[in-house]
Amino acid sequence: MTEQTSKQSLFEADAVRGLAHVFVRDLVVDATVGVHEHEKAGPQPLRISIDLTVREIPRSVRDDLSEVVCYEDVVRKVQAICSDDHVNLIETLAERIAASCLEDGRVRAVRVRVEKTEAFAECASVGIEIERLQAVT
Fold first, then answer.
1. Which of 7, 40, 77, 116 is catalytic?
2. Each residue of 26-68: pLDDT tens digit?
3. Which pTM does this prediction carry?
4. Which residues contact 65 (CB under 8 A, 6 or more apart)?
5. Which fold has domain 3-133?
6. What are the boundaries of each domain within the chain?
7. Strand pairing partners for 13?
8. Is 7 an active-site residue?
9. How far apart are CA 7 and CA 132, in angstroms?
10. For residue 15, what are the CA distances in angstroms to 9, 23, 25, 56, 58?
11. How far, CA to CA in Å, does 121 sit from each of 1, 23, 45, 116, 124?
C-alpha cells in the first residue's frame, strides 16, 4: 500500500475495519486570531472543516443519538473554542480543535483545516491543515 493510498483511506468509511466518516464542511466562525496588531483588534472570519474517522458501534435496533459521534457537538465545541481569548496562531487553534475531537474515545483520527478568508485580497484563503491520531491504549 502506498503512502498516498493509506492517507486517502484514513478518512473514508470502511466496513471491514468498522470505521465511519463524520465530517463538518466549511463552518464559518469569527475568532480573534493573528499576530498582527490589526488582527488583535477584533474577530475575523475563519472557515473550518473537520474530518473524523470514527469507530462504529455494531448496529443495533436502537435509533439513539448516544450511539454516534454527533456532528452538532463537534460544531458547538469549535464555536466555543473560537470564542475564547485571542490566539496568535491558527495552528494553535487547529490543535485545540483536534484535541477536543479526540476527547471522544470513538474518534480514531481527526483532520482539521482552518482558513483565514480575508487575510489577502489576492486569494480566497490561507490556512493550515493538520491530522492527529487517537493515542493507542
1. 116
2. 999 999 999 999 888 899 999 999 999 999 876 665 777 777 8
3. 0.87
4. none
5. GTP Cyclohydrolase I, domain 2 (3.30.1130)
6. 3-133
7. none
8. no
9. 12
10. 12, 17, 23, 9, 11
11. 41, 28, 14, 11, 7
